[in-house]
Each structure stands twice: as structure tokens, then as C-alpha cells.
Amino acid sequence: MPRLPSNELFRALAKTQSLPPVDKNHKKAFGPLSTPERLLLGPGPSNAHPLVLKALGQPPVGHLDPFYVDLMSEVQELLRYAWQTDNRLTLPMSGTGSAAMEATLANTVEPGDKVLVAIKGYFGNRLADMASRYRADVKVIEKNWGEAFTLDELEDALKKYKPSILAMVHAETSTGVCQPMDGIGDLCRKYDCLLLLDTVTSLGGVPLFIDEWKVDLAYSCSQKGLSCPPGLGPFTMGPRAEEKLSRRVEKVPNWYLDVSLLNKYWGSDRVYHHTAPVNMNFGMREALRILAEEGLEKAWERHSSNAQQLWKGLELMGIDLHVAEELRLPTLTTVRIPEGVDGKAFSLHLLNEFGIEIGVGLGSLAGKVWRIGLMGHNSTPENVDRVLSLFASELPRFREKTVCAA
Amino acid sequence: MPRLPSNELFRALAKTQSLPPVDKNHKKAFGPLSTPERLLLGPGPSNAHPLVLKALGQPPVGHLDPFYVDLMSEVQELLRYAWQTDNRLTLPMSGTGSAAMEATLANTVEPGDKVLVAIKGYFGNRLADMASRYRADVKVIEKNWGEAFTLDELEDALKKYKPSILAMVHAETSTGVCQPMDGIGDLCRKYDCLLLLDTVTSLGGVPLFIDEWKVDLAYSCSQKGLSCPPGLGPFTMGPRAEEKLSRRVEKVPNWYLDVSLLNKYWGSDRVYHHTAPVNMNFGMREALRILAEEGLEKAWERHSSNAQQLWKGLELMGIDLHVAEELRLPTLTTVRIPEGVDGKAFSLHLLNEFGIEIGVGLGSLAGKVWRIGLMGHNSTPENVDRVLSLFASELPRFREKTVCAA
Hints:
Chain A is α/β, with parallel strands linked by helices. Chain A has helices at residues 6-17, 50-56, 66-83, 97-108, 122-133, 151-161, 184-190, 239-246, 259-266, 278-294, 296-316, 343-354, 381-405; strands at 39-40, 89-93, 114-119, 137-142, 165-169, 171-172, 177-178, 194-198, 217-219, 233-237, 332-336, 356-357, 359-360, 369-373.
């Protein structure tokens, strides 16, 4: 078939639509992408497993392709293992961990519902902010950043406020605290409220038992314990939360995160909802497969063992850790910045000179701590040694530098 | 430093937290990922450009890394070029196109606002559903699936309803119709309402001038004209929409998509909002760079030229196209399924035997049309020839098969 010259076609196109000339103002000629090498030992993302990166770069398939539909089931099944849950509504939201966080509230909060948020760090505050946007009657109890709640404190608040939902953070990324979970699920049943748990910095790295702990709603992220890049937000909802969802009077006030719609796609109906982020799910599937291959017990042991070596090493150097040992997260350690050191300048120095990212403090811990993550693929003895030797060699020089500059 | 044996550590861990045994019920041993080869000629995703896939598979960096912060600005600038806009609030939402769609409404609709949705296909209905979830007073006007609105029809509705927002779809993925845009922006100014436009199937493939057309809010996706896998939702908001956002009485009722927060991260402050999907943005940056390298005029011409070859070829075979030629999208063609053919069985045959995906009909066009996409990297003369030759060789055999089976 003879082809029309393309100029002629475009002129015809322009004639029927009266097209203006193309503005070249924003047409910048950037070179091809070249990314720097980084060892990510901050609060996340952590480095991705090489097999996960390989999966991410595979050519996409359609979101209703039989191959992809099978892969979705594999992701769900492996996510149930990672979270230790039988919940049918277990799936990665097509957004980051914050989207999954919002999904837990958007689906279950009805206007006027009392939501009690137990705040002990930055992400507790975010839960309270989000809940208020869904017109919850938000109540909060607070602890210092670096502490955890006791069962008595929680019970007092449940008695006082009688909330529909208790929302709290298992592993506070801003403080490095791991909330002990014994008995909290039972308390929530006793006071007839749902238990909503942030497991962003615990999934894959810290013992976590959604069903045994009687957690009704949980969310996480892809880029920490799972060693997949950021972009997906694991979400799970148990039968008690499902029941609250099914009793809703009005539609979920968030279309994208509406689990009743999403379940028609992820469940057996396979009804189109949105075009799935297929490549991110390729990566997630590999990340979860690799975790299952290692086994949860071994992964948890590895995280715990490496973290303890880090803690010992830092303490031997006379550096203080922010959290009492029994509450410390193995995935994320908050390290007190020694007197006289510019914490931000030191972390920039590690990034610029050694390609190593460690985090600075957030919120009330800004300027007071560094945050060192040893998560997923990055939780290795070699990385512990690398951090310790850099702290040993660079921090003293840096102190001198700071003093000299002053 | 001597290491403790990890068993000992785990037992210590289990003792302090009374951990139950790990349930292995969902621990399935799936093999490493192996994806099938697909030529994606449906309504999206389309195949990704090889350089985009390479970018996606690069090791991640932190979301506040100076390298990444520069990359964000590059993505924004290239997106402004692709959309032909100077809007400062131009950025990819960290979700798919549907998330960006929701972002346009979530940020601008206040309870009771009148939103007029001009519906001529599946995605118009979605806009109406979403707007109602933000408590808009939703009004709709409708056209048959396969037609477009005239200026008179739109003006009558604007006069009648006096909405705050007119929402409509530029390129209806469900019908293959391209809405002529001449004069609509001026009408919206005349009746003092915002113009919200779905450009999911037009960005990168069809002439599109956000500023010239006086569009106040628009959204798109990564996986069609841009040839990046699905997972990001380009979003843009002009000054009139920004002003409506700034006048809001209450917070945006969607934390994840709140542009006033997102702008603190994407703007000069670089305040942490959520952990960005960095690898998806690596891919997006490459996709937009490749589009700019080709140039919009050439990309539009290429899409138009290849689509016309497809149309001619199908018509020569006596196959009817659903949309009148002057309204046809170059990116997506709706093809009427000939009498007696099981359309779904034929598309499955192409997928299973040839690895080629074409789409079936959605909503009121289910069972009536196929949807053939020639988008981005996939809009090539070779792909047109491939589809035409398969229609020529397989469809007659298939008709026979269907008849035989009957």
C-alpha cells in the first residue's frame, strides 16, 4: 500500500483542528540517564535485590493477560506468607506505602467514626492527619519519640474514647522504636474496635504476625524489608474490617483505593479497575519470592543479628543510641548525633564522598539523630562493618573539621 | 568483634516477645520470574522503549538524594513540553493514570460544587463516579459511544447547569473518539468554570496544547503515548485551578494526592511527603526525553500516518471502523467485530498463538468492537503490517472455525 508523506498528513491534521505551533521553551536536551551508585543505609529505600531489578526491567504485559493474572495470585499468596495472614484481601496497592496507609483509613472510616491514634513519632501524626480528612472524630494519645505504649496506657484510652479504630505504628521509622504487640489485639476485641497497624519498617525484617496478633488492617511498603524499589503499598484487611466496609452507608470516598472495587480485579472476577503497575508487580513478586526462599525466621534472625553488631560497634565508639535496647528496631537504628557535630553535614559527607546514604532526623528528632537502616538485602555483616569503619574514620575528623570551622 | 550465633539471638527475641511459630501455609515455592513476549497493541499498556526498561532496572537512589531531586526537575520540564504548558504544578502522581484523574477532582472539588461531566464513553462515567465521591453535585450530559460533543451542546449545558468544573475526555480509550477542542476553553472562561481534561490516550501521540486550549486541569498515564510501563500518572494544574485550590475551606480530602503537600516536595522546598517511586521516575524521565528527542510534531505525524495505514488496510478487507474518520484517534482504533465472530475468542487466539494483545470492548461496546492501539514506541509501519496480515490470515479461518463449532 503506498504511504502518504507524513508532512502532508500533519498539514491535513492541523487544518481540521487549527493547531498552533509547538512551543519549544520546555524542550530541554537532557542526556541519557546515568544514575550514581549508592549504598542506601537510611530509613528507606534500601537497595533492591539484583533479581528484583532484573524483573522490573522486563517488557510489560497487559494487566488482564492470563500470565499477569496468575502473577497477581502469586504476589497475594507470598504477601500472605510474609505477613502471616490468611486474609483474602491482601494485595499491593498501586501506589507507595502512604497510599496503602490511606487505603486502610479510606475504606473503613465513616464520617463521625471515632479513630484513636496512638502517636509516638512522625507516622502516627500522619495517621491522625489522614483520618481527619475522612471526617473521623480523631482522638490521640502520645508518647515521647523514642518510647512505646504500654498495655495499660492503651486500655485506659480505649476505655475513655471507645473508638471504632485504634491506629498505631508497629515500627516507627522516625524513632526506631518497635512497639511490643502482646495483648493489644485482645484489648481491641474487648473494646470492640479495629486494630490498624503500620508495618512499613517491619515487614520482612521484624517478627510480624497479622493473624496471631489479631490485627484487622495493616499496610507496608515495597522498598524496605522487601528490597524492591518504592512504588507499591502492601495492604491487608481482615474479616472484622471487611464487615465494617460492607456496612458502609456511602461509597468509599476514594475511588482509587476503594477495596470493594479493587477486590473485583484482584478477586476471581478479574474486572478491570485501573491499569496495574505491571512492572512494579514483577519486582514485588521476585522480592517476595526471595524472602520466602530465605524463610521468615532466617530473615528476622539476620536482621536482628546484624543490627546487634551495629549497636555494639557504635556503643564501643562511645556513640549513644536513642532507643532502649528492648524496644529497638532491627531494621532502623536512631543514633544520637554527638555534641558539636553538624549531623546533616556529616550525612552529606558520607553521601558525597562514599556514596552512602544515612538518614537525618524527622520532626521532633530533626538535628538530634541519624537514622541508619539495615533492611532486606542491605542487612549484611559487610554493610555493618562499612558503616562502623566510616563512623570510626570520618566522625572524629569531622568533629575536628567542625571545631576548626567554628 | 565476635558474633553471636543467630539461633541464640532469635530465641532471645522470641522470649521477649512470645512469638508464635511461623505458619508455612502460604509459603509457596514459585520459580524465578519468566515473562512471556508480548506485542501490546491493545488499549494500553503499550510496549516500553528498551531504554526506558533499562532505566527502570537501575539501582534505586534515595528520594531526597541531590541526584534524584535534579531528575524530578527534568521530569517536570519535559512533561511541560509534552503537554505544551507552562504550569508550575506539572508532575507525575505516584500512582497510575486513574490516581492522577482522581487528583484533579480531589484537589478542586469542594462539597456541593457543581461538576458537569460530558460523558461519551467509559472514562466519562468514571469521572462522574469519582466526582460524586468528593461530594460534588454531579450533572452529566451524554453522547453515544463513538461520537463527540459539539460546541453548542457544551454551551447549552454550561448555561443550564453553571458548573464550577466541566470535566471531559479528550481521547476516549473506550470508543476511540478524539474530542475536537477548538473553542471549549473559551466557553469555560465565558461561563466561569474550570476545564478538566482526560488526556490518557492522547499525551505523546495526538496534538495536545494544554495552555493554548485553556485547559485548567489535566491528567494522563505513563504507559501509552510515552512508552513507559504503567505506574505513574502525569498531572497538571493551571493558575485558575490553583486559585480554586487555595480558596478551599477544608483540607483536600485525600492526603496522598493533595497537591498543596506534593508541591512542597516537587517545588523548591523539597519537603518529604511520601517516598517517591524513584525507579518509575527513572523510566518516565527516559520516556519523556526520547519523546522530546523525536519532537512532538514528528511523533504526532508518525501516529497519524500509521493509524491511517491501519484504517485503510482494515477497510480494504471490508472491516468497519466504529468512529467517523474526522473524529478518530490515531492512538486507538475501535474496529467493529464482524457478524458471527466471537470477538473475545479471536483476541485470545491472537494472544495465545502470536503473542499479540488487542483489546475487547468496554461497557456499552463490550462484544461489539476490538480496540487496536498504536501508541508511542509501538506506532510503527511494521506493527501495522503485522496486525493487517494477521487479520487477513486469521479472521477468515476464525469465522470458519466459529461456524464449524456452531
